[in-house]
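hey so u asked for the seq, here:
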Amino acid sequence: MNNIYNVKLTDRDVYHILYLNKVQGLQPYQIEKSFPVSRATIKAIVNGKSRKDCHAAFMDFKSRYPRKVKQLFKYD
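ran it, C-alpha cells below
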C-alpha cells in the first residue's frame, strides 16, 4: 500500500511553501491542501526545522530583495 506522505518535495515545492506562508500569509493547514505532505511537515518547513538549506536561502533572498520575492510564484 502506498503512503501519500512518503513523498519527497522538490526544492521548488519547498520554496513555494515558504512563499505561501512568509509572503502570502497562509497558515500550514491552508497550505497542506496543495501539497501531498502532512501539516507537521509544512510546519517544520516554515519554522526552519526541516529543509534548513532552502529555508535559509529563502529568508536571505526575502530580506535582500523584498520586492522580487513577491513576484516568485505570482504566475503559477
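The mean pLDDT is 89. The CA atoms of residues 25 and 31 lie 10 Å apart.
lmk if thats what u needed
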